[in-house]
Write a structure and sequence with these properties.
Layout (H helix, E strand, L loop, with lengths): L3 E7 L4 H13 L4 E6 L6 H7 L5 E6 L5 H15 L5 E4 L8 H13 L4 E5 L9 H18 L11 E4 L3 H5 L7 H12 L4 E5 L15 H37 L7 H25 L7 H28 L3 H24 L4
Parallel strand pairs: 1-2, 1-4, 2-3, 5-7
Antiparallel strand pairs: 4-6, 5-6
């Protein structure tokens, strides 16, 4: 299978990595590229053992740079050397990706040479660690909200990627685990089709060998949604502060309309602030039509919120208007995120 290369980012690997590589070679793959992501001298014997296989090439980082950078290093190596490959298959070094599943991905790549192929795990099994099950469900939901794409496993490291897509993937932001989510979003944005094949779900010692840092790496994966929430919160605080200032300024000059005037003035200024932050700091893109779309969306959300709460209160419950407002606005907050990313700030 000389039209495929297996890429394995490796940080502080153990015997499981050696076992995996042996099985990959026994399966028939004749090019395995392993990136030593700054593992240190303590793990030199592992890489020395890996180098004894003629099918293996070791690329090295002097210090740990993250899984995303390790993948990019391998991608650049392949493009620079212009190897006659159809596709690469990325896999993890912890023994949780089976050579037989890599073979399944290669067969799918031959059938669909223009598609990226993901190895999708079955998270319905009871033996799946809680953090893995929860993390997959959350990122799967966020990815669907962000891109409109439904995938079974957004966090899988077993991926078959046609070589022709590597140049654009080198441009994707992200150096650590967030790179894999960013990669999927980039493929969606560039209209690259993605398909999935079911693979074995393997967790060894409750996934203790994983170098995924729940706090640091979750932040990098979910940061766009976190920034969106912070932007909304800051805009709310600004709106209340400006409202109070305008109340003080307009109370005497306009004793009848000062509340309405203060509300409108504060909302316009806080909305402009929110628009600027979302365009330049959260989504980091947009077009000439973005401002018009933003205020059209804001008007729609405001009317939908008022109408929904009124309808639910008047026609159904007859009480709990504050709780209804919170529930409705929470749903609209998520809807606003999806609409802003997909429509308001889309590139044209």
């Amino acid at each position: 299978m000389n039209q495929f290369a297996i890429i394995i980012p490796a940080y502080k690997p153990d015997q499981k990595c050696l076992n995996t590589v042996e099985k990959i070679i026994d399966t028939g793959f004749d090019r395995v590229i392993i990136v030593d992501d700054g593992s240190g001298t303590e793990y030199k014997h592992i890489f020395n053992s890996l180098e004894t296989f003629e099918e293996v090439t070791i690329l090295k980082h002097a210090v740990n740079k993250g899984k995303g950078r390790a993948l990019k290093t391998a991608f650049q190596y392949i493009l620079t050397n212009q190897f006659p490959l159809q596709a690469v298959i990325t896999a993890d070094a912890d023994g949780q990706h089976l050579a037989s599943d890599m073979l399944k991905l290669s067969e799918q790549l031959l059938e669909t040479p223009d598609k990226v192929v993901l190895g999708a795990r079955d998270f319905s099994k009871k033996e799946i660690p809680f953090r893995s099950r929860f993390g997959n469900r959350f990122t799967r939901l966020l990815f669907r909200l962000s891109t409109g794409t439904v995938l079974t496993d957004t966090q899988t490291g077993l991926r078959g990627i046609p070589v022709k897509y590597l140049p654009q993937l080198l441009e994707v932001k992200g150096e650590r685990f967030e790179y894999e989510m960013n990669m999927l979003a980039s493929l969606r944005k560039n209209e690259v089709e993605v398909t999935e094949v079911t693979i074995e779900t393997v967790y060894i010692d409750d996934n203790k060998s994983s170098h995924f840092n729940p706090l640091r790496d979750s932040y990098h994966i979910y940061k766009i949604f976190i920034f969106y929430g912070l932007s909304g919160g800051a805009s709310f605080v600004l709106d209340i502060g400006l409202y109070w200032i305008f109340i003080q300024l307009l109370r005497e000059p306009a004793p009848i309309l000062f509340i309405i005037m203060a509300t409108i003035a504060a909302r316009i200024l806080s909305s402009l602030f929110n628009y600027y932050i979302n365009r330049n700091k959260v989504f980091k893109q947009g077009s000439r039509k973005s401002l018009i779309r933003y205020f059209a969306l804001a008007a729609f959300i405001m009317l939908t919120s008022a109408g929904s709460v009124h309808l639910l209160y008047a026609e159904w419950l007859g009480r709990g208007e504050v709780i209804l407002k919170i529930l409705v606005d929470t749903i609209l907050f998520i809807f606003g995120f999806v609409a802003q990313r997909a429509w308001v700030f889309r590139k044209e």
